[in-house]
Fold this sequence. Notes:
The complex is a heterodimer of chains A (about 325) and B (about 425). Chain A has helices spanning about 20-35, 60-75, 95-105, 120-125, 140-155, 175-185, 215, 240-250, 250-255, 280, 290-305, and strands at about 50-55, 75-80, 110-115, 130-135, 160-165, 190, 210, 220-225, 265.
Amino acid sequence: MKGPHAFAQKHLLGVEHLSVEELTTILDLGERFLEIAERPIKKVPTLRGKTVINLFLEPSTRTRTSFEIAAKRLSADGINFTASASATTKGETLIDTAMNLDAMSPDIVVIRHAQAGSAELLTKHIRAAVVNAGDGQHEHPTQALLDASTIRAHKGKIEGLTVTICGDIDHSRVARSDIFALRKLGAKVRVAGPRSLLPLGVESLGVEAFDRIEPALEGADVVIMLRIQLERKAGGRFPNTREYARYFGLNPRRLNLAKPDAIVMHPGPMNRGVEIDPSVADGPRSVILDQVARGVAVRMAVLYLLGGGSEAVE
Amino acid sequence: MADILLRGGRVIDPARNFDATVDVLLRDGKVAGVDADLPAPTGKDAQVIDVHGKWVVPGLIDLHTHLREPGQEYKENIETGTAAAAAGGFTAVCAMPNTVPPNDNRAITELMVRRAREVGAVRVYPIGCITQGQKGENLSEMGELQEAGCVAVSDDGKSVMNSEVMRRALEYARGFGLLVIQHAEDCNLSANGPAHEGPVSTRIGLRSQPAAAESAMVARDLELVALTGARYHVAHVSCAETVRLVREAKRRGLPVTCEVTPHHLTLTDEACAGYDTSTRVNPPLRSDKDVLAVREALADGTIDAVATDHAPHSSVEKDVEFEQAACGLIGLETALALCLGLVHANLISPMALFERMSTAPARILGLVGGTLAPGSVADVTVVDPQATWICDPSRFRSRSRNSPFAGRSMRGRAMLTIVAGHIAFAEEKLVG
């Protein structure tokens, strides 16, 4: 894996400001890294000697593990720095944390934080490349990349597809990043959910908004279900999870409104029986676990590009 | 006190609709003469200051300043805050009551009045709390607050949410002739949203509050004004809906006035897109439609006054994540230049601007100043409308640096600020 890549960014803070070429570069590279997971020795020396810090200041299992595996498969030294163990619970500011980490000369810092703009704030106080692994309700770029990767693999393309994102759009950084990425790559994006969970002016992002999910599902190629983010006070926006499941959950009957070959995705963690019926989650159209597998590959691609990896993969 | 003759400036006095190039003589703390070719004063230390090409206006009055003393002197104090005011062309500031402890009793008011007398560069008019501890429950001792020097009441920073409490506050204040200034925000609806709700907040993922959080509270209050007949003033109007409500209320003849800040006149919510915490302010920076509405309302008089909402915060409160940052920005040393930008863009006349920045604030609170009529107090600001400068908060008199205008090219500034005939601020090259 050699040669110049169309990727001029120092950090990965979001999808909004990435070009189509940069998105495609990451997706193509991720495709090639996917194969490493099938090898008996799942490791390449690409980032040997590089230090990657996972600064996770909000609870996360899947994303942190995925980044950790991605770093290890590239032979980087990965260190986890989580909220419960960190100085932030002792009152240290994010800027002080950043400056302390900077003094240890990491090459890449992956940050997950409960507030929008925190990844960008970090870049102002640290020399390392910064990867946004989710900042509040703002962006979660690697999730969008792995979603795009999954869609491209199953549909052969993204351009011209109709993608319907259902659920708690307002609190969802995944929805924002998915909208930016999929629109850039030529998909038509619909968002659907109770109007109380759709952000005011969501149409300005270039999507079609629906306050019932049935019309949004009609003819869709891809259905992405989102979790209700009760930790972000979504609870007051609808009566209860029982009624939510009844009107906004994805069950087999509703899925039949989509195209016969439509795929179902979910960024996880799922609330089975709330936004998604177990028979759909485990059904033949679900590609949810493939998303997880591709997450590692796409994150390897991101770390590779930001970490200045240059050695051959083969 | 030595006489001062301001020679050859363009004198703009909105109180008399006066605009002419004449001399102004200040003597014994009063305006002694406004006329062409006044003879130079001859007394010991008398000064003649050449202000050709400059504008001589009644001293600016800020209805809305946070001086942070007592309690948060690490952000600002009466000495630094009034020095910043003088440097910005203000001859008087109204000090908001969200000090620590809040100014809800005469002991705090008396302290502020005494400190202002000892170290203040400009006049300081304390504003007392509407309710004890700004809690929105029990009325504060408005009679004693007024006796000690308060000129109005406000729970600024907090809205009086309970309609019954607001009603009684309006009635009680009316009996003392005290203006009630409301920070209008339905706190349930706003839920501490750090950004304006709309396409920008949707894009940048900041939690947000709708403009209706402000206008819904103003609408309620206007009904209570109709019920009680009390005088009511809306602080920092930020959105088109509030402008519409105030315009209608004035047409109904209700005794309502309002103010707008320089930042709501000049910045939209796009300024928050880089998560610069100096743009975190409450009410939040709004849409371009709202900015156009408040500009138009300032020009046509629906909005009575410009007020800075000067809100100093230290790096402790501001060098954090956007949503954790304290609300507010410093405004005393940028207000005049930002508003002169509206004059340069022909959005408002100089006469109307200085009416909004001096004459109207004086009228709303019944303060001295706001005019250069002979016999009035010698509170005067000399403005160089063309001076260009780069905003550098590290050079401000304020103790805090939280300005979203850092690095911006400015045009126009105060070159001389005179309070009761004393020079409170002068550009170094101007007065020897």
